[in-house]
Amino acid sequence: MPTEDELFAAVDALLEGEPEMPPPAERGRLREAAGVTQARLAQVLHTSTQTVKNWEVGRSEPRPPRRQAYLRLLEGWAEKYPAEPEASAMPETFTGSIAQEAPESRAVSAGEAPAAAATPAEQTTQPRPEPAARTSSALRRPTARNTAPAGGADPRFENGPLAVVDIEDGQVLAYCVGGLVLDVPAKSIPSLVDWTLKEARLGQPKLSGPGKDADPLLVLTEAALERYGLPVALTDEERLAGRIPEGHKVIKQLARAEWKLTKRGFGPWARIYRPAQGSERMCVQLCIPSWNALDTRHWGRAAQLAPAELARLLGTFASRVMTPRGSTAVTGLELMSAFHPPTRASEPDATGKRHSEHNPGSLGKDPVDCAPCEAPDGHPLLADLPRFHHRTPAEVLVEEAYDWARPLTDAECLRRNLVGIDVNMAFAAGANGLVVGLGAPTHVKNPVFDAKLPGSWLVDLSHVDLSRVKVAKDKWAELDGSLLPSPFTPKGERPTGPAWYATPTVAYAVELGYDVRPIEAYVRHDNGRYLDGWYNRLRDAYLATMADLGVGADLPPEEFLKAMDGYRQRDPQLAIVVSVIKATVKGGIGKLRERPRGEGWKPGQPWRALARPTWRPDIRAAVISRTRINMHRKIIKHAAFTGQYPVAILSDCAVYTADGPSPLDFLPYRDGKPLPGGFKLGVNPGLVKWEGTQSVLWGEGVREQFNAPELNLARYIKDGTVTDQDTGE
User: Fold this and answer.
1) What is the pTM of this model?
2) What is the pLDDT of residues 181-200, one digit of tens each?
3) Nearest 10 degrees: CA dihedral of 386, 391, 394, 395?
């Protein structure tokens, strides 16, 4: 224990205040004047060269005990090498203790030049600096612009949405977006959470009026895990459970500090929180790459990136989409709710108090039951069905993506190539402008079909003949129906009787020129364009990132194909962002009908996902239905105009035969313009890109090898590699 004299001496020192460090640029000038390299200074202070660089550009501040030693050294150098008056950025005097930071000095990012000093006019218009609310462990920010960050950024989140926490020479550092680095004083996970909420200024503003700000995200490297007493990797048992045991010492530390974990526990995407007080949320999201938080199918080698690079990658995704909240599927679903939060604040009542009320256009805060035909096998609504009962199309709604193929005709076998084209962001395009149900379904017998009313319809579409269809208003086309997939089933088979369909599928039958007479329906009168904001955000993120990779939105077809050639190699990190954006689309749609994930579930019992208002299989079915119909509509237009038919379709990829290797060898363009309503090359969602080309001989050889005349060649068209027989999985 310290003596009384020592305590009073410490208090007196605190009352006098700690000497201020000189501005970053002056630190570098003094070192250079003394002829000392950054590496030599780092050696003397027992730190790294990068840390010294951070001090000299303002990305971080020294902390005790190095702070006192560094300060003493700078004071000595200042006496030996005073700045020239006309070049000095220091106050008029600099003797004894280090003077305060000059107003024009500011922290800079890696590679960023210091800004010029503000003019007198600028100085009068800038707000006064805030009082320092953080300890010296946090990054020093610009004084004159402290309350109005560049670009109108929210000052509460001036250091960005997230940070990658790593250890360097024993010091905990938080690498933020833009090259900023913060010193972290926290010695445990509870104190790290506390520091994040009180000092780090991390987070992201809400995406919609009644929404909530995004919680700060901390990414923990392997070194950080070791420092804070967490395992670097999960055991097989922990990996299957998705979490570390409840009795782990870190979880006990959190409990003692009155921090809570969500039901998912302490896993790869742990959320640590305390109950909100009023409108103030107290929650931090963790991401642990070495626990497989960043799925390599979508995130590639992101987990192996250096901290600063990983912060850049995640920060780019966060700024363009949202701060990741878990897997790409979880993030996709959370993005929907971010644009349509379930509740909002009411108008003030007689006493001036506001209350929580339903937010129009949202799915609400309570789950609703789906229609029986929309329920997947094992759902509680089907508990009375006999065990192993196989539901027929007249009992269950089956709206899935295409998996269809057919044998080549003799004429097609004489062509050289099989060329695959792929629809960009197909499911996002299917969601664009789609009207979906918001509330519970209403059961109707013998309804009149209404294409504007979302729902599920029991109707017989077996009479629709693809040999003669409408391709425009009052314009019929004669086609070879045997070479076309049915638009009404995922396998492309023609229906044989009544079946359940989502509204877009039935509406397409009407569009093709045929009458429909539903037998019954589950319709949703409470409806809206719930996915529009979600689509727009993801579309803009995708187009912006592709533009950064050199693929613009308005390129002519030839230039587009050239731009797409090798675009991923131009910036591999941005290419990962593109992959994650696509996975966010597909995963979010799939999450609308999440199935049981272990947990001792048995058929007929509810599972955890059913408690979510965002568990909406009807919305998923509508999006997939519209996506499949969009593909079929283009196929019909193309066939009517060119006489060419696809030989295989897998989800958003279609394969055609052609004499040349390029999509331009079979896609009709006239004066640079594509067939109206048909396939068009381009980067926008709904347009197509080249997927791959293989020879017709390759295709026939693969089918012969596996004795499968209808093997889906679209699955292998990209690189021609076939590892096993097509199972349709």
Assistant:
1) 0.81
2) 999 999 999 999 999 999 99
3) 60
